[in-house]
Amino acid sequence: MTTPQHSVARPRxxxxxxxxxxxxxxxxxxxxxxxxxxxxAVKRTDLAIAQGEFFSLLGPSGCGKTTTMRMIAGFExxxxxxxxxxxxxxxxxxxxKRDVNMVFQSYALxxxxxxxxxxxxxxxxxxxxxxxxxxxxxxxxxxxxLTGMEKRSPREMSGGQQQRVxxxxxxxxxxxxxxLDEPLGALxxxxxxxxxxxxxxxxxxxxxxxxxxxxxxxxxxTMSDRIAVMNAGVIEQLGSPREIYxxxxxxxxxxxxxxxxxxxxxxxxxxxxxxxxxxxxxxRVVVPVEDAVRSGDKVEVSIRPEKIDxxxxxxxxxxxxGSVLSGTVTEVVYHGTxxxxxxxTAAGADFTVFDxxxxxxxxxxxxxxxVYLTWAPQHSYMIGV
Amino acid sequence: xxxxTLDRPTQAPSxxxxxxxxxxxxxxxxxxxxxxxxxxxIAVMIAFGFNDTPGRYNQEWVGFTFKWYGxxxxxxxxxxxxxxxxxxxxxxxxxxxALGTGIGYxxxxxxxxxxxxxxxxxxxxxxxxxxxxxxSLLTLFASLQVGLGAVTIxxxxxxxxxxxxxxxxRARVMTLDRSVEEAAADLGATPWVTFWKITFPIILxxxxxxxxxxxxLSIDDFIVTNFTAGTTETFPLFIWGATRVxxxxxVNVMGTLIFATGVLFAVVTNIRxxxxxxxx
Lengths: 385, 280
Fold this sequence. Notes:
The complex is a heterodimer of chains A (385) and B (280). Chain A is an alpha+beta fold. Chain A contains ten helices and 21 strands. In chain A, the strands form five sheets. Chain A has a six-stranded mixed β-sheet with strand order 6-7-8-3-9-10, sandwiched between helices. A five-stranded antiparallel β-sheet of chain A has the order 16-20-17-18-19, with no helix packed on it. In chain A, helix 3 crosses helix 4, helix 3 (115-125) packs parallel to helix 5 and helix 4 (130-143) packs across helix 5 (159-171). Chain B has a domain at 79-236: MetI-like (MetI-like fold). Chain B contains eleven helices and no strands. In chain B, helix 3 (76-109) packs antiparallel against helix 8. The longest helix of chain B is centred in the N-terminal third of the chain and has 47 residues, at 2-48. Chains A and B meet through strand 6 and helix 3 of A and helix 7 and helix 8 of B. Chain B: It is a multi-pass membrane protein. Chain B: Keywords: Cell membrane, Membrane, Transmembrane, Transmembrane helix, Transport. Chain B: Belongs to the binding-protein-dependent transport system permease family. CysTW subfamily.
């Protein structure tokens, strides 16, 4: 913190040195006082968001993701720790002096101003020249496809259009980072999917760091470069969408991102980096394990539903050396693109299996059928010891 | 089952309109009765402004004339009283508007020590009898040895109308989306700029109705004014004094004009609010 990089204000026009994170949290934590009691909203967090990254904060409501974002924006001051923007300490800098802009969940457009005036508001505060304001507002309205709507007032526009005004109003200032607080929450499904693609396109076009707060895991997976999954004020996992989906770091992440089947068991033996958990003579789970795992250790294993094959007869598993669990089908739900089976397995846990409806043949199994579930070793993932 | 569902559509229209007609007839009569009740005293006031009465007594209809409109400002005492009233109403409603807006904004936006008691005191000033308020103000001014006059009247009027302005503004501020102000700060506006560029324009209609309310309360206040006026004469005090010797027709004319101004304001605001809701 004593390095000149952190303490000297950098002129806005100079680009930050390569490698300097756009946003950095060093030991940041936030407590609230509620009825005389200290309630932690965000526990001690270290975090670095790179320049130009599409970064999502994902978690259930009350997990601390909005508080984290508001500390970046400057609406909340951390109880302890330091917030850096482009390597500059901004912990005690108020929101109106921070070079980040926010898109609010409720859009928070100024109801008495029209589209042009709404978008120009930030530039006017910076005393930008009239001609330049006009040019930049025109440019950004084109990017968000709102050209011709300059004179409309917010209440004359649809939810999707208001959303674009909010986006333009923030982006026109060319902020160091754009913060988006569940911006698509109020839109219907079709529009939401359209805006997801649009947001990603805009982010590519303007090249600004996006920090995206959402509780919608699908949204986070499709749009983000990296995701921080938060729970109870803690970042449980930070990684690419693929890492988070394929290699969940905790039971919470496994359950929150998509659907996961989780089985517990003791490692019977370790052989060539693979651990074996057996339940009966033929029911077993094979999982890649870390070097530290020894036989006798208790582990949790997560398996994604679409990785599992469902067989009615005894499968030839001995050849593949993969996992096999027998069970009884308790539920069959037809979803159009896939059929979802719930199977009570010999390992004690209920499994969900997705079967793609690739052909229009009948379902693989009916309720009450005796079935076998198999999957390859690399599709088992150990989430905890 | 089938016959029942078939019957329903034919039955319903024959029953409903009849009901509506009897109900509507009663409602119409009732509405006109209420309107008559409200308007009749005002109509009498307006009518007697056109009464060709010979002397100061204006209680019997003599004939129609416009002459009192021509002689509106001939009674200098009356004119002076009206001017005093209007001046006090303007000054006190603007002062109450400024102070009340501040209080209303603070109460609607922030939680602070003393907010509860402030709410209570505001309610107390709205609900306490004017007679008591006037008497205690007189005692206060007397014990402070302040000379009674236009200034004390204005102080008294500001005092009782602040609560009204604050209540109206507070209600508006409480429905205001907090994030709109945060958005302004986020875009680089200082708290001062945020208030004047964003918050104030949004709550302006509420401030405006608060000021109008304060103006209306001030211009026709009699009880509190009577206690705090000293020798200063306002419009209501003049009329009160005149009842003993006969109210001159000019009073009716002025009353008519004040009423007409009020109606004009109401119509204009009505049209404006209708125009804004249409665009929704």
